Every structure is written in C-alpha cells, then in structure tokens.
Amino acid sequence: MEQRTLGGQGLRVSALGLGCMGMTFAYGGQDDTESRATIERAIELGVTFLDTADMYGPHTNEELLGSVLAGRRDEVVLATKFGNEIGPDGQGTGRVNGRPDYLRGQIDGSLARLGTDHVDLYYQHRVDPDVPIEETWGALGELVEAGKVRYLGISEAAPDTIRRAHATAPMSAVQTEYSLFTRDVEDNGVLATCRELGIGFVPYSPIGRGFLSGTIRRTEDLPEGDWRRNSPRFQGEALQANLRVLDEVNALAERKGVTPTQLALAWVLAQGSDVAPIPGTKRRRYLEENAGAADVTLTAEELEAIEKVAPVGVASGERYPAAAMRMLHQ
C-alpha cells in the first residue's frame, strides 16, 4: 500500500485508512468477531492507518482496537479523538468540551483502553465554541511534549479555527467529511487552508456513508438502529434526487470495470498526495473491495466525466440532522 505524508511534522500513513466507528457505534449490527478479523485483515493488506474515537461506544471502539492490537501496536498508525463530551456515567452528554482539564483526562482514558503509551494522531473531534481554540491547543501541545501524543489534528473546523490552532501547536491533519457527494471543503476554504498551511487532509465517509456503494436504494435498506435512517440525505425527495445522480456514477464505474465504491475512493485518492481517506467498514469483504481502489488510476478524461456527473453541491439534503449540523465548522 502506498504511503502518504500528512502535514509538515513527518506523519506517514497508508494512503487508504480504516474508519472503525461502525464496528461498535451508529450503524447497528455489532459483530466483534468479524470486526476483529477485519482489523487484522486490514493490517495484512497494508491498510494500517486506523481511526477511532473515545465517543464511539462510548469507549467500546477503543477497547476493541486495543484488544486486537495487543502485541502489534507498532504495525499501525493509531488515531483517536476527544471533544464530544462523555459524562461521569460513561455516556455522551450531547455537548462539546474543549477545556484543557477535560482533554488531559480523556487522553489518559484513551491510552488505557487502547493499551498503549502514545497515540500517533490525536484529533479534537469537534470545536468547543465556549473555549478559545488557543487554550485547547496549548494543552494539546503539552501532550506532544509529554510523549502521550505524536501528532495533532482537528475535525470539522472552520478555516480561521484551523489557522489559529496551527499557530498554537503544529497541526498535521484536518479530518472532515469528503466524497463525491460531499465536496463542501472545496467551496468553504477548508481544503485551501490546509494546503496553504501544509496540513494533511483526512476525508471520512469517502463513500458517502455507504450511499456511493450503490447498495442503498430505500431508507428501509438500512439496518434497524442505523443513524442514517434519520439523515436528510437518505429520506424522501432528497433520496430520490440522490439516487438519480448515483445511477450516473454507477454507469461510469461499470464503464471503468470497477465497483461504484472503488470509483468513489479512487476519485478521493486522486485529489492529491496530501489526502488519505478512511472509509469505514466492519466486514472483510468490503475492506478488500475498498483496498482495491488503491490500484485504480483515473485518467483526466474519466475525472472530467465524474466532475460533470457529481460537481460541488450535487447532493440533496443536509449531511446531518439539524442539531449535529450546528456543531460543524466552528
């Protein structure tokens, strides 16, 4: 698997990573045995950039990863996150917390669950509008100095916030949703800011939360307990409009001789050597399909055809319900 460099501090990752969230959180149907096998298969395939967060579960995702990585920690680049507040009862509060005292406690908890003495990449998961970003990032810089964290990142932040955080402590990666169906970062200054400052970019949901796989045609196709049942893009008229675009993407994939998933991932990978997407899956068969995208090269003509079918802003419906949308791009 190709290796890519994120940021100017030397962080090297596999070009394609693995988002582990769905193994224990948000998408229903937990199967720890298959999830463990998927992580192990990812490492075999060279997909060694693994992404988790304290909120996924909460805590159970990090615990799962820690159990799989016992004895092979040095084979992977491990990323986790803090900031979506978890209360004393171990449950999410629905708030964002960027206070230095909070994050210091969170990193220690993450390290214990992951069974390691350091995290390779530590993200601020969401920005706390009530805490100056300089306070949060000053504390994050101290974690790097202490050796608990090697590199720093932020998720779903506005350009000015990225700039201020990076000026406080060097940032290696910005993680934001990005796919053929979600190209906001090309239009809102986030991607341009990353490139101006020399910060790597990590797209999550690069398959459009599974939509670009072509396997979801109705809301009812989603499992019970799957949060996408409440996502505006997977409902009503928005879903129907998105399906019309998807059919055109599928036609391009068929012409190329690849799956729609592989076309979508190859497109993201083609956006620059500073981009390392982390498609999520909890099954080996999808992991192997995803990994195949690393061998797909798109010509200039094919990229142009994709651009015509899925330009910036093509998706119908917001990418999160209203309450979650308010937590983005602070």
TrEMBL record:
<dbReference type="InterPro" id="IPR036812">
    <property type="entry name" value="NAD(P)_OxRdtase_dom_sf"/>
</dbReference>
<dbReference type="Pfam" id="PF00248">
    <property type="entry name" value="Aldo_ket_red"/>
</dbReference>
<dbReference type="GO" id="GO:0005737">
    <property type="term" value="C:cytoplasm"/>
</dbReference>
<dbReference type="InterPro" id="IPR023210">
    <property type="entry name" value="NADP_OxRdtase_dom"/>
</dbReference>
<protein>
    <submittedName>
        <fullName>Aryl-alcohol dehydrogenase-like predicted oxidoreductase</fullName>
    </submittedName>
</protein>
<keyword id="KW-0560">Oxidoreductase</keyword>
<feature type="domain" description="NADP-dependent oxidoreductase">
    <location>
        <begin position="16"/>
        <end position="309"/>
    </location>
</feature>
<dbReference type="GO" id="GO:0016491">
    <property type="term" value="F:oxidoreductase activity"/>
</dbReference>
<dbReference type="InterPro" id="IPR050791">
    <property type="entry name" value="Aldo-Keto_reductase"/>
</dbReference>
